[in-house]
Amino acid sequence: MSTEGIKLFTKGKIFMRFRRINIALFSAAFIIMAVVMFFAYVGVTNQISVQYAQSYAVSSADALSSHLDKEITLISRAANSPAVIEWLQDDLDEEKRARALELLHSIVGDLYSFNMYIGVESSLNEYSVSISIADTTEPIAVLSPDEPNDAWYFHTFNSNRRYELDVDIDDFMQRKRVWLNYKVEADGVVLGVISTGLEFSHVVNELFSHYDSNNMRGVIIDGAGTIIMDGSMLDTAFLYEMHFMNVETEFPHPEVSNAINRIYMSHPGVTVSHWWDTIEPEVVDLASGPYRYMTIVPIRYTDWSILTFSNATTLFDTSYFIPVMITVLVLLIAFAVLSSVINYRLMYKPLKDLESSLSQLNEHSSDSIYGLERDDELGNLSNTIHDLFTKANVDPLTCLYNRRFMDSSIESIMGLLSRTNGLLSVLMIDIDYFKRYNDTYGHEAGDECLRAVAHALSITVSRVNDIVVRYGGEEFVIILPNTDEAGACKFAEKVLENVQKMEIPHKKNEASEFVTVSVGATAGKVDHNQDLAMYIKRADEALYKSKESGRNKYTFLEFK
Predict the structure, then answer these.
(1) Smallest Cα–Cα separation from 386: which of 408, 411, 366, 409?
(2) How far apart are the first and last CA of the chain?
(3) CA angle (387, 388, 394) in 5-degree steps
């Protein structure tokens, strides 16, 4: 079968065209993408800025909420421990107090403020536990419902919730804190309250210190719209005192007050435990003032919100476009390279291997076609070519090459030998008294005999360029490129030996009791004036002499 179509691809015509089209498509895709991205950039800058503004605010709100989550988990562990429950049932028992304090000291070291306060219902004693205080401690005060500083205890004790959060000054530490007050209960009876706090100075620094104060500002407001934290005043007493200003006074923009009202006024019944789950973050486009956007984000566990004010240039600078374009270019180039590699491995290389195997098949250096084992389109093509090649060039009975294959391929072999002054040997083989064998044993046995002899001839040759051909009927030809007289005679002896070894009974064979063959051989130096027919004619003359002299032997005649 001709391989010109495949050679056309592997020699580069189709492949080069495919590669040029790929390059053109890649270039066009890059130009179009660059133009689209540039114009899209102009249109989406504000949208990206809005997302960044919201991200800044949400991250700050999430940071504070995570602190509260941790504190609640730790205090819950203390409030539910058997040691603490037993102590609060009898806080004057020094042994129970020691066990409880040992546990509380292990917890207090993980708290944000490293200290906690405990109020006991049975005695109304108030205790302070700190990482810096010894394991045994005495009450620091007696709680009174008439004392404003003790309101945290009684408010929590009378609450329907397990814990309460509020904002106040820590008189002992002289710091403003977010207080977490947690009930200690046993069998539905409230035994006392454990309280701890987050120190505002650390929290505010953590939330807002990374903001660019020239282009961004972050504040926290409570449910009344009062600013209780201000990121622009990190180093002032504002963080520790309870003197606050109203957000509408500090930011006199209608958009600001409208946004705050939309959240707080439209959700008057929202409790702090469900605040985060109920209200979504909101970004407001400011029409005037030093800032372009305001983001308002509710903080979980409180009725507070974080407000961030920012400018678009801070959130998403135009220079960001350059690394994006470089990244896109690199990705496109990587895609083009990867696409080329994949195309080479999936299409170009398999077709090249198929073409190479077909060329070798035509040149008799191989009888294998690439891709026969594949289960894809190339495998179908390879198997189709193999089937067509087999039908056209292989004898169906013996599975040897036929005369058509020999005639179509010998020209290239002899052309190569003539250019290199190479030798060519040809053997003609004929099964002795084969007609008598057919008449005696039947045609089915005759076919089996032909297959057996063909196998014996096939195993005689070992070089990939040697060709064994069923010439017709019971005649066979062996073509041996680059083989001299000695080699031809050695092959002939081996043919006789391999056939005799099979010991196929043949009682009508006058030369032996088994099936035998007669061989005629010739060898000569090839030149451009010769063709295979001359060698076959000379080998046939030698075969005739073998038959005349008794069969089951070989005769060599030098080619002339």
Answers:
(1) 366
(2) 34
(3) 80
* Pairing status of strand 554-556 against strand 517-525: parallel
Count the residues in the chain: 560
Distance CA 486, CA 478 (A): 15
In sequence order, the β-bridge partners of residue 479 are 426, 467
Give Cα 301 distance to the centre of its chain. Answer: 41
What pLDDT sits at residue 9?
A: 46
What does the alpha-carbon distance between residue 55 and residue 310 come to, in Å, rounded to a whole number? Answer: 12
Match 């114009």 to its residue by tokens: 39
Give the domain 80-201 fold. Beta-Lactamase (3.30.450)
The owner of tokens 């030093």 is 290
For residue range 489-525, list pLDDT tens digits in order: 999 999 999 999 999 999 999 889 999 999 999 999 9
CATH 3.30.70.270 assigned to 394-556: yes
* SS3 of 273-335: HHHHHHCCCEEEECCCCCCCEEEEEECCCCCCEEEEEECHHHHCCHHHHHHHHHHHHHHHHHH
Site of tokens 């009378």: 158
CA distance 306 to 60: 8
Residue ranges of the chain that CATH labels 3.30.70.270 = 394-556
Nearest to 290 by CA among 306, 261, 260, 314: 314
In sequence order, the 6+-apart residues with CB closer than 8 A to the CB of 407 are 532
Q: What is the pLDDT of residues 22-49, one digit of tens each?
A: 777 777 877 887 777 777 766 666 666 6
d(CA 18, CA 9): 10
Which residues are CB-neighbours of 415 under 8 A, at least 6 positions away? 528
pLDDT at position 120, please? 92
Strand order in the sheet with 125-130: 141-142, 125-130, 115-120, 189-199, 175-186, 163-170
What CA–CA distance (Å, rounded) separates 436 from 546?
A: 19
Q: What's the whole-number average pLDDT of the chain?
A: 80
Contacts 24+ apart (CB under 8 A), 341-349: 343/18, 343/22, 348/9, 348/10, 348/15
Other CB atoms within a 10 A radius of the CB of residue 297 amount to 25
What's the burial of 336, exposed, middle or buried (CB within 10 Å: 0-12/13-18/19+)?
middle
| Residue range(s) of every CATH 3.30.450.20 domain in the chain | 80-201
Residue 167 contacts residue 176 (beta carbons within 8 Å): yes
CA–CA distance, 468 with 367 (Å, rounded to integer)? 12
